[in-house]
Write a structure and sequence with these properties.
This protein is α/β, with parallel strands linked by helices. The protein is 34% helix and 27% strand. Helix 2 links the parallel strand 2 and strand 3.
């Protein structure tokens, strides 16, 4: 007997929802069951443009979708300022929550959302897609290899893209009433997550914003960076920007090895993704070149990373529905740590770039 797929409803017709709609269609254990917008025409057009099944329901209000007893899970791609209200309501309606990042404007809002999820027994996960790519697991195996990589010493992460004038004037990510965290929330979230991922999600002791952030006239961050410091001496830096060429780098350096990749958020190709590693390299006798050159590793995939994310999330929801399992705490814990560091960067900028201690 075939398993019944997890039935998703989407609240809001943001551009990113097109990508996740496709991911839900591709995931073997999920299906698109409904979409809601404040305009029923917009919802209908979105469903048609994104290949929703003919039986999918079209709603002209978010509340109507949340009241639908046939919806198991909700994907929430609304602006960050709306997450608190609609994520809490989603949980109170006992719908499992896959929400875009950043989850909230600050960790206080995050904890309110998480409390609602825990009280209502629903699974929560944020939409950071790259951590679900099979490449990410392979890279983690290298970082965990004490012989090849050794002990993590430092991480550098960078995500930028050059936004055009229309974006910088009109996009929700530069509007203080919609996505007040700007580039820090949109791009910095990925950088912070990559650093925590490399550090086995151990929180740093202190975070210091780098001097020279760029803010727009409304006070929204367009460009910033930070350094992170751990008690054992590990360090990390990141930079995020709407004002620089498209770049998505991670470099993690251990005592013996180095991991490097240049497309960590969105692989250059959907069907495969690569990364390079080096272990104990050195120079030749005349110091005119390296010996033990870095090696490139390629991981091929059957599903794009966003469909892997949906499959993982739907599997957790299915385990709750079918087996009475408790929601998996791994993903909300990782999200909360990312939010904590993001908050600390923002606080450091506001405090004149003073170090801010992380209190979990």
């Amino acid at each position: 007997m075939a398993e019944i797929p997890i039935r998703f409803g989407i609240i809001g017709c943001a551009e990113i929802a097109c990508k996740v709609s496709r991911a839900i269609l591709l995931a073997p254990n999920a299906t698109l069951s409904a979409v809601a917008s404040r305009s029923i025409d917009k919802a209908a057009n979105f469903a048609k443009a994104n290949g929703f099944p003919p039986e999918a329901k079209i709603y002209g209000s978010y509340e109507s979708l949340l009241d639908d007893p046939d919806i198991d899970a909700v994907y929430l791609p609304l602006p960050t300022s709306l997450h608190l209200k609609w994520a809490v309501l989603t949980a109170q309606k006992r719908k499992h929550l896959l929400t875009e990042k950043p989850v909230a404007l600050n960790v206080s809002e995050f904890d309110t959302i998480l409390k609602a999820c825990e009280e209502n027994g629903v699974q929560m996960m944020d939409g950071t897609m790259w951590v679900h790519h099979p490449r990410t697991q392979k890279m983690k195996e290298f970082l965990n290899d004490k012989e090849r990589f050794g002990q993590l010493k430092t991480v550098n992460s960078y995500f930028s893209f050059f936004a055009d004038p229309d974006f910088l004037k009109n996009d929700i990510r530069v509007k203080p009433d919609l996505d007040a965290l700007g580039a820090l929330g949109d791009a910095g979230w990925y950088c912070i997550r990559s650093i925590l991922w490399a550090a086995d999600y151990e929180l740093p002791k202190t975070v210091s914003a780098l001097r020279g952030p760029v803010l727009n006239e409304a006070g929204v961050i367009l460009n910033c960076g930070a350094s992170l410091h751990w008690e054992d001496g590990k360090t990390a830096t990141f930079h995020c920007s709407f004002l620089s060429n498209l770049t998505m780098n991670i470099t993690a350096i251990g005592t013996f090895g180095t991991l490097h990749l240049t497309d960590f958020i969105i692989p250059y190709q959907e069907q495969e993704a690569s990364y390079t590693t080096s272990t104990k390299p050195g120079f030749n006798k005349l110091v005119t070149g390296w010996v033990s050159l870095p090696s490139e590793h390629t991981v091929t995939v059957d599903l794009p990373q966003e469909a892997c994310m949906v499959r993982e999330f739907a599997g957790l929801v299915e385990n709750i529905k079918k087996n009475g399992a408790q929601p998996d705490k791994k993903w909300p814990t990782i999200s909360r740590k990312t939010q904590l560091v993001l908050d600390a960067v923002k606080a450091s900028i506001e405090k004149g770039f003073e170090p801010v201690e992380i209190v979990s």
